[in-house]
Design goal:
138 residues; Arc_rbn_hlx_hlx; CopG family transcriptional regulator; RHH_8; Ribbon_hlx_hlx
Length: 138
């Protein structure tokens, strides 16, 4: 039994959102699903959102450049933050997508190295780290 190790909890790969739709729009969605255009309501909604986002690709790219934000997934480990601390530097997180602060990052290390956090999407960090950085999360 000494060789049993706890596996890290699997992080979700997406975020749930809730929307309200009128009955007519919902009926039209159900009709398209029934006719086989989409496998279910969520499939149609995801496709519609992706198509809309694709139509704004240029605007998003320009905005990312203007705000110097990273697009996608960005992980911050203990080693990353310790290197910043040792160099006397502060991190200003700007992410469009998912920013993850590893579970083994202590609140103290986070406060020493993270000056601000702006995430358009989702931030995953321990409750303690989020609490320690509450005044720096925008």
């Amino acid at each position: 039994m000494s060789n049993i190790r706890q596996l890290r909890d699997k992080q979700p790969e997406n975020e749930k959102i809730t929307i309200n739709l009128g009955f007519v729009d919902l009926g039209r969605i159900d009709l398209l699903v029934q006719e086989g255009f989409y496998s279910n309501r969520s499939d149609l909604i995801r496709t519609a959102i992706r198509n809309q986002l694709e139509s704004h690709t240029g605007v998003v790219s320009e905005s990312l450049e203007r705000h110097t934000m990273e697009l996608g997934l960005r992980d911050y480990s203990v080693a990353d933050l310790e290197a910043l601390r040792d160099a006397g530097e502060m991190l200003h997180v700007k992410v469009v997508g998912l920013a993850r602060i590893d579970a083994d990052v202590t609140p103290e290390l986070a406060r020493q190295t993270i000056g601000s956090i702006t995430v358009l999407g989702a931030l995953q960090a321990s409750t303690e780290v989020k609490k320690a950085l509450a005044d720096r999360i925008r």
